[in-house]
Design a protein that fits this description.
With about 700 residues, this protein is α/β, with parallel strands linked by helices. The chain is built from 22 helices and 26 strands. The strands form six sheets. Strands 14-15-13-16-17-12-18 form a seven-stranded parallel sheet, sandwiched between helices. The protein has a six-stranded parallel sheet with strand order 19-26-25-22-24-23, with helices on both faces. α19 links the parallel β23 (about 560) and β24 (about 580-585). Bound molecules: zinc ion (2 copies).
Length: about 700
């Protein structure tokens, strides 16, 4: 298992070259569907990557077109060609010698055991996906080796009839350089012994190990998404139907597409093969999977979304709909929304437009909690049957729907599947540095599909793409309540000073906290750049309790937490409920958190390695989200002022300016803010003070 031989089969009017994990099966299958006269292996068993390399070399060299010979004379020439190619392969092959016997007389009878509905079931699983044998086996719950062997025959039958294609997981490029076709990693791998192929010099992609390792000897499988055109799914009997499949397949994966480096293997055919014998059984089945799914789940039409958009949101909705209607294939659009301005639902009308055309949509996000939160909302808007949520360990891997919400890792298991991809918080960890996830999102798009980024803090590369006119930017500069974003202020002091065995906070910071709690009330997020600083700052604050300005305070009003804290969720909940006023934390609380009456202090804000522009904007964005208290204080505190601090301030200011100029802010927001602040602090349930 796991190794592939190249072979040639021929009949009166056709020649076919392909690769197979079990040539005897292919012999039987080809005999059955094409009625072949001869069959010969061109190579011994090779890792999928190598076999694909040779198949492509044969395709490029195109011996079938140039050579009119057939049968054994041609086999001889092709074997010599393969042998020459193999000696130039970068990786030592265990089984480089050619098989001496030509297989012709021993077809594998297991071919007869493949049922038509089995082919349909596996094809449905593969549609728009990119899955290894092991992953397909898990979806089908195949427990044993014989089940997997049978599955590999089913996959081979799908490839031979043009209903699926094989992509070697890892392909050799040049010299020792390889590329992983799942995650896009390119590099020189470490060679190691492999159980899968028995080779001493196999290799694995190091980048997507977390999703189950992929080796040079392994293959991935995919089937094209039906284009939804009329007539596409009607059963066509006989040869025209077979032609139809192959042609559809080829039109989905046109050869030599610019910039397309994927190595996709399907049979090299010449002449006219007549698959009538096979299709006599097949045609009776009629409908393809796409048709049987064509009930309510895939119905097209208009969606009535019950969402009240604010004027800035409505402007973005219309711009996105125009983007979606654009005839030109492809295109990328960036929705840049101020923190708390409501970017998610802005994409819903566009999603509805695309679903209404019977097309497929992916809502991708690096964060699992966002998938969990968005899936029910999408279900409510578009019908829960049309939505499937995918994240690590969700158990939904085999399910499909026209609208998929998935973490970016799950996205790597899709292939040319979606007409629209929405990438939410594409700048959030672990996305920006992650070439893998960028690659995954591009790979999940169908050729000509459209991509939308939703973000509050566009990454630098997004602006660069905008400058290069590769990305359109749509802004939502104002929050629904119509008040401007709180602008950060800088406090230039050294936040922590050594005192005896411990640390103390600069008096200016203590005074600031005291004043905020006394006068403005509410709660304070204190962000620090390192995990151990949460405790240091928390303890320094507690040691100040009882002294001015913390006279009336209690030590348990100050809590701290970080990603590794087992109490983290409980403390967060408690802070949200307003049970204590001061919470010291790392950037784990940076996104997706709304506390009604919160102020933000960032200590050592000049630590640019942690607090980059986007992070600073996100932390400031925790403030003033509630319509009851649409403001708050944001302080960046450090001994120096970093470029990132300046940039964050500039970004927030420019959004406010834009919101003002567009008329998205309340006319009298200044007076209203004064009124809100003059009311002072109504306790909000926090048991502050002694009274
Ligand atoms: Zn990989
Ligand atoms: Zn291997």
């Amino acid at each position: 298992m796991g190794l592939f031989s190249l072979y040639m089969a021929w009949g009166e009017s056709f020649r076919l070259i392909f690769l197979s994990p079990d040539a005897a099966f292919d012999l039987a299958f080809v005999q059955r569907i094409y009625g072949c006269d001869g069959f010969a292996c061109l190579t011994g068993p090779l890792p999928a990557g190598m076999a694909a390399y040779l198949l492509h070399a044969l395709e490029k060299h195109n011996p079938l077109r140039r050579d009119n010979s057939t049968g054994l004379p041609l086999v001889k020439k092709l074997r010599q060609f393969c042998l020459r190619q193999m000696t130039s392969l970068p990786y030592p092959l265990q089984n480089a010698s050619l098989p001496s016997e030509i297989i012709i007389s021993k077809p594998d009878p297991s071919c007869e055991t493949i049922a038509v509905d089995e082919l349909d079931e596996v094809e449905a699983i593969l549609t728009g996906r990119l899955l290894s044998l092991g992953e397909i086996g898990r979806i089908l719950r195949l427990g044993n080796e014989s089940g997997r062997k049978h599955l590999s025959m089913v996959l081979q039958a799908l490839c031979l009839t043009g209903r699926a294609a094989l992509l070697p997981a890892v392909v050799p490029l040049k010299g020792s350089l390889v590329r992983c076709q799942r995650c896009g990693w390119e590099g020189i791998p470490r060679l190691k012994p492999c159980k899968g192929c028995g080779s001493q010099a196999c290799c694995m992609c190091p980048d997507c190990l977390i999703m189950g390792g992929l080796s040079l000897c392994e293959a991935l499988y995919t089937a094209p998404v039906p284009s939804g055109e009329a007539g596409e799914t009607t059963g066509m009997p006989g040869r025209s139907r077979w032609r139809h499949w192959v042609e559809r397949f080829l039109s989905v994966w046109p050869e030599g597409e610019t910039g397309d480096k994927d190595v996709v293997c399907s049979p090299i055919m010449s002449g006219e093969a007549n698959p009538a014998r096979w299709l006599a059984g097949k045609a009776a089945v009629g409908a393809t999977p796409a048709e049987s799914e064509g009930e309510a789940g895939l119905a097209t039409g208009k969606y009535h979304l019950d969402i009240n958009f604010t004027p800035p949101q409505e402007a973005a909705v219309q711009a996105l709909l125009r983007f979606g209607e654009r005839e030109a294939p492809g295109g990328t659009c960036l929705v840049w929304a101020a923190c708390g301005a409501g970017k998610t639902e802005v994409s819903f009308p566009l999603i509805g437009q695309v679903l209404g055309r019977g097309e497929r949509v992916l809502y991708a996000t690096p964060r699992r909690d966002v998938v969990l939160e968005i899936a029910p909302r999408l279900g409510k808007a578009f019908g829960s049957k049309r939505v499937v949520a995918l994240y690590g360990g969700c158990g939904n891997q085999g399910k499909d729907a026209p609208l998929v919400a998935a973490t970016t890792h799950q996205v790597l298991r899709f292939y040319r599947s979606f007409d629209l991809v929405i990438l939410d918080e594409g700048d959030a960890y672990p996305y920006p540095g992650s070439r893998m996830l960028h690659f995954g999102v591009k790979k999940a798009l169908r050729p000509g599909g459209k991509l939308v980024y939703l973000t509050a803090t566009p990454a630098g590369w997004m602006f660069e793409q905008n400058k290069a006119k590769l990305v359109d930017i749509i802004k939502i500069p104002a929050r629904p309540h119509g008040f401007p974003l709180p602008e950060p202020r800088f406090l230039k002091v050294t936040p922590l000073q050594k005192a005896g065995h411990g640390w103390v906070l600069h008096q200016a910071i203590l005074d600031l906290i005291g004043t905020i709690l006394e006068r403005d009330g509410g709660q304070i997020f204190i962000f620090v750049p390192a995990v151990d600083l949460t405790r240091v700052v928390g303890e320094a604050l507690r040691s100040a309790v009882g002294k001015p300005p913390f006279e009336g305070f209690r030590p348990d009003w100050i809590q701290w937490s970080h990603a590794g804290d087992r109490e983290r969720d409980r403390k967060r909940e408690s802070f949200f409920k307003g049970e204590f006023p001061v919470f010291v934390t790392t950037t784990i609380m940076e996104r997706g958190v709304t506390v009604p009456r919160v102020h933000v202090l960032v200590l050592e804000a000049d630590q640019a390695a942690v607090f980059d522009r986007a992070t600073l904007v996100q932390m400031a964005g925790r403030c003033g989200r509630s319509p009851d208290y649409p403001t708050g204080q944001v302080w960046f505190i450090a001994r120096s002022i970093s470029r990132e601090m300046e940039e964050a301030l500039h970004e927030i200011r420019s959004l406010n300016k834009e919101a003002f100029q567009a008329g998205f802010l309340l006319d009298d927001y200044d007076a209203k803010l004064k009124e809100i602040l003059s009311k002072g602090w109504q306790k909000n349930g926090i048991a502050l003070g002694t009274g």
